UniProtKB/TrEMBL annotation:
Parent sequence residues shown: 71 to 334 of 340
Enzyme class at the top of the EC tree: transferase
An individual GO BP term: aromatic amino acid family biosynthetic process
EC annotation from Swiss-Prot or TrEMBL: 2.5.1.54
Keyword set, alphabetical order: Transferase
Lineage of the species this protein comes from: Bacteria, Bacillati, Bacillota, Clostridia, Eubacteriales
Domain DAHP synthetase I/KDSA: 19-259
Name used for this protein in its record: 3-deoxy-7-phosphoheptulonate synthase
Origin species: Flintibacter faecis
Length: 264
């Protein structure tokens, strides 16, 4: 169970072939583009974020876009390019699954992401419970923390205890930001569950210049990691350019986050 009552110690999740740890004092710095766009793009971003201290590479291959006419991702080819980026840098890779039938394509993926829109796709969660891969479970756009934990239970009930929770902002009446980052979720979840809790300041704000302050705030309130969108050329990104950092900006964010972490 995800409940802290039955498991007082923080869970530590092992990621990738070299068993990178997340949770219980081990911080995950996940960075990369919203979407994998080309081999050159993903390998260049992977090299830059690794040099800046990222511990994992993110990149969407199957994209949950609001419009069916928007870029839907490179799909299986995108996963192949992520695997090439892993081979080039040694960074474990994180990518989103939308359909359980695609699971065979995720064999070399180190962390399978369940996006906000699928947080309550219970059949998908049950299938992921049958795997033993770490699952990055994002909070739904309008879901309570209790509902997030019940979704984690769906995965854990199948025997997969490797769940990392992610606060990525929720829908409110505010329009200055894409979503409203609920940082109190980190403190509340740490009481409710032993699972690691990371923060996505990119989707939470939708604005690149707000990513650094929110990443610092997440580190200050005890988050177990961050997932941040970084693109080599944000104005030309095929998805989420407005919230994407250039690699040089990510370097500054990583430094600021590490400075905060040293004080908490
Ligand atoms: C993403 O991480 O690219 C993404 C689509 O995030 P979310 O599911 O939180 O909107
Ligand atoms: Mn995105």
């Amino acid at each position: 169970s995800a409940n802290r009552k039955f498991h007082p110690q923080d869970s530590v999740i092992q990621v990738g072939e070299d068993k990178r740890l997340v949770g219980g004092g081990h911080f995950a710095m996940i960075a990369g583009p919203c979407s994998v766009e080309s081999e050159e793009q993903i390998i260049s971003v992977a090299r830059s974020v690794k040099a800046a201290g990222a511990t994992m590479l993110r990149g969407g291959a199957f994209k949950p876009r609001t419009s069916p006419y928007a870029f839907q991702g490179l799909k299986a080819d995108g996963i192949e390019l992520l695997v090439k980026a892993k081979q080039a840098t040694g960074l474990p890779i994180v990518t989103e699954i939308m359909n359980a039938n695609h699971l065979p394509l995720f064999e070399d993926v180190d962390v399978i992401q369940v996006g906000a829109r699928n947080m309550q796709n219970f059949e998908l969660l049950k299938e992921l419970g049958r795997t033993r891969k770490p699952i990055l479970l994002k909070r739904g756009l309008a879901n309570t923390l209790q509902e997030l934990l019940m979704s984690a239970e769906y995965i854990m009930a199948g025997g997969n205890e490797n769940v990392i929770l992610c606060e990525r902002g929720i829908r409110t009446f505010e329009t200055a930001t894409r979503n409203t980052l609920d940082l109190s979720a980190v403190a509340a979840l740490h009481e409710m569950t032993h699972l690691p809790v990371i923060v996505d300041p990119s989707h939470a704000t939708g604005v690149a210049r707000y990513v650094k302050p929110m990443a610092m705030a997440a580190a200050a309130c005890g988050a177990d990691g961050l997932i941040i969108e970084v693109h080599n050329d944000p104005p030309h990104a095929l998805c989420d350019g407005a919230q994407s950092l250039r690699p040089e900006q990510f370097v500054e964010v990583a430094k600021a986050v590490n400075a905060i972490r040293a004080t908490v």
